[in-house]
Design brief:
It is built from 16 helices and 14 strands. By secondary structure, it is of the alpha/beta class. It folds into two domains: about 140 residues, Aspartate Aminotransferase, domain 1 (Alpha-Beta Complex), CATH 3.90.1150.10; about 230 residues, Aspartate Aminotransferase, domain 2. The protein is globular, with a radius of gyration of 22 Å.
Length: about 425
């Protein structure tokens, strides 16, 4: 579940002074960038800009691997990264992969999933595609309105004789109801995997996410707070499953010229692992920045009518990599998409995850044209959720300006909405 630009983050754009920031300081609605005023930011602010860590240490590792001329095929850096992730998460096996989508495909195939597998529609499309690519039918299940994760009661209702597994998604890094899902899987004889793309560095019930179900899959895409440029991993305590995935990610090779299993090319490169090892060394700093940004957003938007927060459990470890709002249009009198248009014009590239829901994308909307009738919470969330920029490319000054713009748009909701409606649709091509 990835998104946004993966270009290397530039230095933070110099913020405008308070008197220039946002429409409230620029003379009103007419000076919003959407209506012809200058943008609040000279450079785009993304939901996820890459964290690099110590550049010198990274370049030292890259020079070392170039000197050794071992660029891929289970090199020393990949092996070291796997060991460190195993220790960090507290699992027996980490199988590093070229990306999380391939990792999901390999984990699903190694676990023996066939027929139908129950998944949320409120997720990045790769969660569904990893199944459909293997001619496994993703059966879309609704989510809990509070957690945004799979609703276990609905999961139970969707099980049929063709169901072989469940894939839960720890959306925003907040854990699924693992106890309930593990109970269902155990009673019904199903495999249970977790898409933990958002959840590296998070814990649940005092245990690091990564040790639940039969296996869990992390994403280390460039937009994640911890990245390997492009990459992912499957973590598990199942010896047999791990051995099978190691074969499958390397064409089924068991030694030189000895193929004993069907496989593909899912290997992580040495340069990707070098990036991962460098990022692990600064992981605490990345989390500290994310948390500070999260808390600053909360302070700046506190008490704003019609705008609610996705909060994190402060008793658990969390990476705080997503700042997520829900916009209640009945209260704000301005829709989530209208606020998004206002922000984009100001160079604030907020996102509406996970719009419009997997069930409304191809091929699923053609296969299951009426799926939305069974997914009321998913349908509601895809119209309300707004994800704001964070990470090391964003700081308090930028956050204050972003929040000033949001507050102004909501305070003049009906008027702003009317002005937007009068604009040409061509002005906002993404909506």
């Amino acid at each position: 579940m990835a998104g946004d630009s993966d270009a290397t983050a530039p230095e933070r754009p110099a913020p405008l002074v308070d008197g220039e920031a946002g429409a409230a300081g620029k003379g009103g609605i007419a000076n919003l960038a959407a209506f012809g005023g200058p943008p609040a930011f000279s450079e785009p602010l993304h939901v996820g800009r890459p964290n690099v860590g110590d550049r010198n240490r990274l370049l030292g590792r890259i020079n070392d691997l170039l000197d050794r001329k071992w660029l891929t095929n289970n090199g020393a850096y990949v092996q070291e990264l796997e060991r460190k992730i195993e220790d960090f998460v507290g699992v027996k096996h980490c199988v590093a992969m070229c990306n999380a989508t391939i990792a999901l495909e390999i984990a699903s195939r190694a676990a023996g999933l066939t027929g139908e597998v129950i998944v949320p529609s409120f997720t990045f499309i790769a969660t569904a595609h990893c199944l459909q690519w293997q001619e496994i039918t993703p059966v879309f299940c609704d989510v809990d309105s509070r957690t945004h994760n799979l609703d276990p009661a609905r999961v139970e209702q969707l099980i049929t004789p063709r169901t072989t597994g469940i894939i839960g998604v720890h959306v925003w890094g907040r854990p699924c109801d693992t106890d309930a899902l593990e109970d269902i899987a155990r009673r019904r004889g199903l495999k249970l995997l977790f898409d933990a793309a958002h959840a590296f560095g998070c814990s649940h019930q005092g245990r690091m996410i990564g040790g639940f179900g039969d296996a869990e899959v992390f994403s280390f895409h460039a937009t994640k707070f911890f990245n390997t440029f492009e990459g992912g991993a499957v973590v598990t305590d199942d010896d047999e499953l791990a051995a099978k995935m190691r074969l499958m990610k390397n064409f089924g090779f068991a030694g030189y010229d000895n193929v004993i299993y069907i496989g593909t090319n899912g290997k992580m490169t040495e340069v990707a692992a070098a990036m991962g090892l460098t990022g692990l060394e600064d992981l605490h700093q990345f989390v500290a920045v994310n948390r500070a940004n999260y808390e600053e957003y909360r302070r700046q938007l506190a008490g704003l009518p019609g705008v609610s927060w996705i909060c994190y459990d402060e008793t658990e470890k969390c990476n705080y990599q997503y700042v997520v709002l829900e916009v209640d249009e009945e209260v704000t009198h301005i829709g989530r998409d209208d606020i998004l248009n206002i922000l984009i014009a100001e160079n604030v590239l907020a996102r509406r995850y996970f719009y419009p829901g997997c069930h409304r994308m191809e091929p699923y909307r053609s296969y299951f044209p009426h799926a939305g009738l069974l997914l009321p919470e998913t349908e509601r969330l895809t119209k309300r959720v707004l994800v704001l920029p964070t990470g090391t490319a964003v700081g308090p000054d930028e956050i204050r300006q972003i929040c000033q713009i949001i507050r102004f748009a909501v305070s003049r909701g009906a008027e702003v909405r009317l002005r937007l409606a009068e604009q040409s649709k061509a002005l906002f091509p993404i909506i």
